[in-house]
Design a protein that fits this description.
Strand order of the largest sheet: 2-1-3-4-5-10
Radius of gyration: 18 Å
Shape: globular
Helix content: 40-55%
Order of helices and strands: EHEHEHEHEEHEEEHEEHHEEHH
Strand content: 15-25%
Largest sheet: 6 strands, parallel
């Protein structure tokens, strides 16, 4: 690892934020995490904390998730947090001369794609969550020139995402209804944070797609995860479909490939992560 940096992570109570804090700390960086006590919607509080912390890097994991957008009030809150909040963090980062890492999503692209989208493709979000995150990206680009925007797909860990939902169900004795018509590129939190760390260490800027290689459906992912963990997938999974909410979203990590990065296949990624956390049998 290159020289250790002081890194401030907002949204540190979320599963991605908490893993970013823990894993970057394990790599030797001085990491400080905050959540609602330093809201990204409060510019004055952000500025005061930033001056006290003096971070060299700010990683903005704060955001209202897609699942929370079930009412008009939450849609307003999504833009306040995901768009204007990101802008507040960007202003602070720029004032400090700190690099900003903005956590975004593949939801900035349509839910049914004919081909993979790379970092040079123009996003066209269809839903409020994706639109709010797209707005946040635009504000960050305009407010903090020294930035990295990270998009990924189906980020999972034992603490959150599709893997947690699956294992929680099985460990409580419940069969899991699992979609066979929603496709994406699942990415472990280990791969995700490792590439963020590498981007910071190499002083990269711009947009990066961090995903494992391969596009599969939720059922295929769940079956492989259960198999690695020593369960019989046929005994625990119930395949389901829904034409209305069928999806196929795939990000192409063109920038990482151009830099010669060795991305794992989704199977390698899953196997490695489950071995790391002691769940592989």
């Amino acid at each position: 690892m290159s020289e250790a940096k002081t890194i401030w992570v907002t949204g540190a109570s979320g599963f991605i934020g908490s893993e970013v804090v823990e894993r970057l700390g394990a790599l030797g960086h001085n990491v400080v995490g905050t959540d609602l006590e330093v809201s990204v919607c409060d510019p004055e509080r952000l500025e005061a904390f930033a001056e006290a912390c003096s971070p060299e890097v700010i990683i903005n994991c704060a955001g209202l998730p897609r699942a929370a957008l079930n009412s008009l009030g939450n849609r307003v809150k999504a833009y306040e947090t995901n768009a204007l909040g990101a802008g507040n963090v960007a202003v602070v980062a720029n004032a400090l001369g700190a690099k900003l890492v903005q956590i975004s999503t593949d939801d900035v692209f349509p839910t049914r794609m004919a081909e993979p989208a790379n970092e040079f493709d123009t996003p066209h979000p269809e839903k409020p969550y994706g639109k709010s995150k797209r707005a946040g990206e635009a504000i960050v680009r305009n407010s903090a020139p020294n930035h990295i925007i990270i998009r990924s797909s189906w980020v999972y860990s034992r603490r959150g995402g599709i893997l947690k939902d699956l294992l929680d169900a099985v460990e409580s004795g419940r069969k899991a209804e699992t979609r066979t018509d929603q496709y994406n590129s699942p990415t472990s939190i280990r791969t995700y944070v490792n590439f963020i760390a590498r981007a910071i260490e190499t002083n990269a800027t711009g947009i990066f797609h961090i995903t494992s290689i391969g596009c599969i459906n939720r059922y295929e992912f769940a079956a492989k995860a259960l198999e690695i963990c020593g369960y019989d997938p046929g005994a625990w999974l119930i395949p389901t479909t829904d034409l209305v909410t069928a999806e196929k979203v795939q990000l192409e990590s063109l920038m990482l490939e151009m830099f010669g990065a060795n991305l794992p296949t989704w199977e390698e990624d899953l196997q490695g992560y489950l071995e790391e956390v002691g769940l592989a049998k």
